[in-house]
Design brief:
Layout (H helix, E strand, L loop, with lengths): L2 E4 L6 H12 L2 E4 H10 L3 H12 L5 H12 L7 E4 L5 H13 L6 E6 L2 H17 L10 H15 L1 H8 L3 E5 L4 H14 L1
Helix pairs in contact: 1-9, 2-3, 4-5, 6-7
The chain binds adenosine monophosphate.
Length: 193
């Protein structure tokens, strides 16, 4: 089963994807994690994306599609969870083509809905927790970058909601509840998919 977790920054996509890795033996493909890893290991691509990411803008379609293409060639286990990808219509088209090439399909697109003020507070809270624990704080977990990330979401990513709705693939989950409640709502969608 291949699914997309769609939602603004701070909606809890990463948290729920980790759950599904445990409960359904799925593979989490987070382009944000891949890009941060490239940045931290100082690759050429990592250097190119660092500033764009810190600002909260999207990196190019070409780069993220390339990252996903590489991962799809590996083991498929219980299927893929696309977390933070696709973020543009061009990426959505590329994903359709990549899955078709492999004889695979998308089984569900789950939109996680959370209001904007909750998002900002969640992300700032996450940064504060990391700081208190002496851990690294994401360069884009500050108020300016969060606003830019939200704008990028509404401008470039939110059109995917209509796109997947029109394809009959979209399910909506309330992302405001406790982690367990949201996880249960997602399991319900997947059980029906
Ligand atoms: P995330 O961890 O998903 O919040 O992503 C962090 C940052 O990585 C984003 O704000 C973008 O700068 C970049 N990024 C992650 N995924 C994508 C994507 N699919 N397309 C473009 N940029 C991305």
């Amino acid at each position: 089963m291949n699914i997309i977790l769609l939602g603004p920054p701070g909606a809890g996509k990463g948290t729920q994807a980790s759950r599904l890795v445990e409960t359904r033996d799925m593979i989490q493909l987070s382009t944000g994690d891949m890009l941060r890893a490239a940045k931290d290991s100082g690759t050429e691509m990592g250097k190119i994306v660092a500033d764009v990411m810190a600002r909260g803008d999207l990196v190019t379609d070409e780069i993220v599609i390339g990252l996903i293409r590489e991962k799809l060639d590996g083991d498929t286990k219980g299927g893929f969870i696309f977390d933070g990808f696709p973020r543009t219509l061009a990426q959505a088209d590329a994903l359709d083509a990549l899955l078709a090439e492999k004889g695979e399909r998308l089984d569900a697109v789950i939109e996680m809905q959370v209001n904007d003020e909750t998002l900002v507070q969640r992300i700032l809270g996450r940064a504060e927790e990391a700081r208190a624990a002496g851990q690294a704080v994401r360069a884009d977990d500050n108020e300016d970058s969060i606003r830019t990330r939200l704008l990028a979401y509404y401008k470039q990513t939110a059109p995917l909601i209509g796109y997947y709705h029109a394809k009959g693939a979209l399910s909506v989950v309330d992302g405001l509840g406790e982690i367990d409640e949201v996880a249960a709502a997602i399991q319900k969608v997947l059980d029906k998919a």
